[in-house]
Amino acid sequence: VLRNQVIQFIDNWPNYWKTSEAFINETFASEQFKFIRDYLNHTNSDLNQNVLDWSKKYLTSGVAGISSFASILTSIGVTIVSTPFILYYMLLDGHKFSSFVSSKFPNNSQLSVRYLLTEISKQIAQYIRGQLGVALAVMIMFSIGYTIIGLPYGILLALMAGFFNLIPYIGSIIAQVPVFTVALIAGGPKMLILAIIVLAIEQPIEAHVISPKILGEALSIHPVTVIVVLLSSGHIFGVLGIVLAVPSYAVAKVFVTHIYDWWRANSDLFEVEEVAEK
């Protein structure tokens, strides 16, 4: 089924795109959208003027810009070529990293440092597994929803949505571009509305149930904590905060737990409490 949907989707996508483009042009050509056209024309005029002003201002630094651009391209090329080799050696010798780092510490703390690094590695690995689990859940939910509404290529589009969901924050938005295009062209406004309803049902379930539950169990973090961490980090640090919130919290949790356990084992305060309890 997936193979047939892939072939049909590739064959029909150019027609879908042309039809959707014509539909949008015809729709916005009506008198009802005149204020939108005027706003866009005004915005385009301002944008063109800003581009001209910017060009005049920075034209003299063009040579330096070309040099910088060439440097960036060179860096990207070196990175692309080097990454497979770096990945190979990391996979080959990655298990030696904790022993190497711990060997730089005093003998009586090497075991503790090695344990700390191992726990951090486990947390990051569990986070990646959790993200894959969330992507799988998203794919299943969209497959069910698209099958119910009868969306063409539903399984293929659900698979794409699950894959794009691995990109935090913007992945779900990117995944809806082909979904809404196919829904509008193949089924008209009614199918588009149904696809939006499926998305409106899936998003709250994913954000407030699936992701906190799967990531919380994978990282031994309460689902409410995951929600609070995502909301607070997104408000403070923006998109980057949402991307790095959960893994950063998991690593920080390992550090704090390790420090607390060390303090509890070496402090006389807890010995007094234990004697009092007995």
Question: What's a quick, concise take on this entry?
Answer:
This protein has ten helices and no strands. By secondary structure, the protein is mostly helical. The protein folds into two domains: about 100 residues, no CATH class; about 170 residues, no CATH class.
Using brief descriptors, characterize the structure shown.
278 residues; mainly alpha; 2 domains; 10 helices; 0% strand
What's the structural blueprint in terms of helices and strands?
Layout (H helix, E strand, L loop, with lengths): L1 H27 L5 H25 L3 H32 L3 H6 L4 H43 L4 H11 L6 H49 L3 H15 L1 H28 L1 H10 L1
Helix pairs in contact: 1-7, 5-6, 5-7, 5-9, 6-7, 7-8, 8-9
Q: How would you describe the overall organization of this protein?
A:
With 278 residues, the chain is an all-alpha fold. The chain folds into two domains: 98 residues, no CATH class; 174 residues, no CATH class. The protein is built from ten helices and no strands. Helix 6 crosses helix 7. The radius of gyration is 27 Å and the shape is elongated. The model has no long low-confidence stretch (mean pLDDT 79).
User: What is the ordering of alpha helices and beta strands?
Assistant: HHHHHHHHHH
Find the structural class using helix and strand composition.
mainly alpha
Mean pLDDT: 79
Low-pLDDT stretches are none
Question: What's the number of extended β-strand segments?
Answer: 0
- Specify the oligomeric state: single chain
Name the beta content range.
under 5%
- Give the overall shape: elongated
Computed Rg: 27 Å
Q: Percent of residues in helical segments?
A: over 70%
Biggest sheet descriptor: none
Query: How many discrete domains?
Result: 2
